[in-house]
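# step 3/5: fold
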Amino acid sequence: MNGSKKLNNQFIGASQLSKMLFLFALGTAGLMVPTFVVAIAKQDAWISMAIAGPLNYIVLLLYLALAERFPGLTLAQYAEKLLGTWLGKALTLVYVCFFLLLSALVLRNIVDFLGLSVLPGTPNWVIAFTFMLVIVYGAYLGIETIARSGELLFGWTVLVIFIIMLLLTNQFEPKNFEPFVYEGWTRPFKGLYPILGFPLGEFVVMSAFFPFVKQADVGKLRKHLKLAAMFVGIFSVGISVLLLGVLGVDETRRSPFSIFDMAKTINVEDVIVRVEVTVAIVWVSTVFMKLMMSFYGATLLAAQMLNLKSYRPLIVPFTFVVVPLSIAVYRNSAHAEYFAMQIWTPFSLTIGVAIPMLLLLFAFITGKRTARSKGDMPVKASYEAPNDSPSGGKAQQSGAGQAGGATPS
């Protein structure tokens, strides 16, 4: 991109990105989406989740196709190549606003959860501001730190979910799934609707991270994305099956945080109890990753749109956008459900799927692309952290070794 400068380079592996994707998908969607899907598909909600798995992978392939056609460029950069400077910047502004709104919604989800279940009586703004301090620090450290956090949280999350599944098997009621597809396949497909809004439409956040993948791992990216989508599908189906089998349709529909309420039912000989606290910690961890990625993506794209030398000056101003917006975005749980189903889903699909499809189609029609060359990946003009970053020296050495002394950014 003209006028941009390559600063210190940070890199992540394809495996790290796939783990970040897994945590991103399970974020707010893992706790809240099953309730929305069950309200529509009832006991066939798990079928809706199973159908969504391949759709997630198809959407990820859309973003990957753009990344492969414009290697080393973020969404902000190839938007300008395709649409010209002013239209490209206008589209980038749309995505910056989308990422910030998504950050505010995710933050509001965690505020509601902690305020109702863990910290009752605590003012919403206190929870929001405290949680954002951690996000600000992570964004300041850069993408390598975010990716390492994702690796740690991934193992912990998978282990806890697996243990919870085992502890709940003795409460499982197969009759809760009867009658099977009693209204035909229409209802399971209708149950896809909330999933299309989140997390599927929100996966566009990943397009800000593809260019940071190490050059040696670029060829492995498709495989790792496929594995991540498969794991997301398996865990989503598993969670839905557990909710229906343990709580049933009616109780799952009534609960705003059904997984947390399901964990409250665990009691093994009065020894293993209060497991919901561990579930809360795991869910907060996944939300942390989703909020971190959305917020970081917003600062990165905005810095590139404004031709800034670093994304860091935008962290604090964007924080004072996200926190108040998270408080004001909706009034109560009833409004939240209306917003999620009637507003966010079509909006998210438009921004996250329809526009990228049009960009890819336009790229094919016009024949525009960026030739791949040594140093193109991970990213050009990454606007990453300066050389005083804790991982800066290591990243530069890694980049030099992988790109033959070039400065991939």
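# step 4/5: annotate
Residues 14-402 form a domain with the Amino acid/polyamine transporter I fold (CATH 1.20.1740.10).
# step 5/5: archive (pending)
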